[in-house]
Structure formats: structure tokens, C-alpha cells
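STRUCTURE REQUEST FORM
Protein name: Protein C10
Source organism: Knipowitschia caucasica
Requested output: C-alpha cells
Priority: standard
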Amino acid sequence: MASAPAQQPTLTVEQTRVVLSEVIQAFAAPENTVRMDEARESACNDMGKMLQLVLPVATQIQQEVIKAYGFNNEGEGVLKFARLVKMYETQDPEIAAMSAKLKSLMLPPLSTPPIGGAIPAS
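Status: completed
Returned output:
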């Protein structure tokens, strides 16, 4: 007999701020800083490797926090939390700022090519 799908949590704007703050604090914990630094070093600024090595570590760190708020401990829980944050970003500048900070903790800034993309002649 199949069980009914678990009800996903619905957080208010205020609760979302609290959870986001806790997730950001989790990234600052010494053991998680080491985990993220090691993953970044292994990725060597290669975006493909970043997705393979850094993103899973970042997902685990988030999962450790959001599971206490009823999100499942799988990647799906992180995705649902991310959708919830995205929804509130447009309504709440504090959530938008915290979301931007979280993204910066997970992925490095992308360098953009020069406008025009011209290569100087030698």
C-alpha cells in the first residue's frame, strides 16, 4: 500500500527569514567552511566541476537546517525551499538580500567576457 505524499511545509515570510538566516549561519560554521573550501579547491574554478563538487556540499548544508522545518532530507526539499524563497524575494527585500548572500556562498561570481568579445590583435 502506497503512503500518501508528505505535506510540504508552508512558511510565512517571517519564518522564511529565520530559516534563511539559519542556513547562512550554517555555511559560516567552521566545519562547513572547510567542506565548502575543499570542494571549491577541487573544482578549480571549472563551472562543470563546481556543479559536481560544490553544489552537493552546499545542498547537504542546507538540508541539515531545513529538515528541522519539515522539508524532506532529499534534494527535493532543498528545491521546494528554494522555490519558496524565490516566491518571497519579490515581496520582501530582506529575503531577497539573504537569498543573494546564500547564492554567493554557494557559487563564485561568474566572470563576464568583455563586451563585444573581441580578441586584441597582436
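Reviewer notes: Residues 1-6 have pLDDT under 50 and may be disordered. The helical segments are 13-28, 30-43, 47-66, 75-89, 93-106.
Form closed.
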